[in-house]
Specification:
It is a single chain. Helices cover about 60% and strands about 10% of the residues. The chain is an alpha/beta fold. It folds into 2 domains: about 90 residues, Rossmann fold, CATH 3.40.50.720; about 60 residues. A 4-stranded parallel beta sheet has the order 3-2-1-4, with helices on both faces. α5 runs antiparallel to α6. The two termini are about 20 Å apart. About 20% of the residues are buried. About 5% of the residues have low confidence. One of its GO terms (biological process) is siroheme biosynthetic process.
Length: about 180
């Protein structure tokens, strides 16, 4: 499934500075989010990204969850080897989430529309069809991207014509190179 988390301008904290943290940072780099790494030890590549001001680096050992109140991140990614610390961070994040839940529910009701849900349905139908018709993952991804960018499908969804939008998506898959 093609999922765009829309992390633009969001605050992401990565706890840990090893190879796993580096993988997570690399996957976030094109999201235009504000990445802060908190760790007492980091890889040379993470240090380089900090020097280039592509990420923020706070060199310190994390022993508790106080950083959540200090940084107020939108997302926290734990990559430490300390399972107990990771769990404490997750639990603290859940507590904070519960406090914000009512506010978030109001926001999500405004953000996620019926059209968004229809787009997701079309994605699933198209994904299933591409698995049957298209051999390589790269080609499937290209096909799915073209379906999601198709103006006619967008208009059909806006007009509430889901069956026609589904047929259009299937036609694109059938006619794919």
């Amino acid at each position: 499934m093609i999922v765009d988390l829309n992390l633009q301008e969001k605050s992401v904290i990565v706890i840990g500075g090893g190879n796993e943290a580096q993988k997570r940072i690399n996957s976030l780099m094109n999201q235009e989010c504000n990445i802060t790494v908190i760790s007492d030890k980091v890889t040379p590549q993470i240090t380089k990204l900090a020097k280039l001001k592509k990420i923020q680096l706070k060199k310190q050992k994390i022993q508790d969850t106080k950083f959540i109140s200090e940084f107020k991140p939108d997302i926290i990614i734990t990559t430490t080897n300390d399972k107990k610390l990771n769990q404490n961070i997750i639990n603290a994040g859940k507590k904070k989430k519960k406090k914000l839940k009512k506010k978030s529910e109001r926001v999500f009701k405004k953000i996620i529309t019926k059209e968004d849900i229809s787009q997701i349905k079309i994605q699933k139908i198209a994904r299933d069809a591409t698995k049957e018709k298209i051999a390589t993952p790269a080609e499937r991804k290209a096909c799915l991207s073209s379906i999601m960018a198709d103006n006619e499908i967008d208009q059909l969804i806006k007009d509430g014509q889901m069956k026609k939008a589904e047929k259009r998506a299937i036609t694109i898959v059938r006619n794919w190179k």
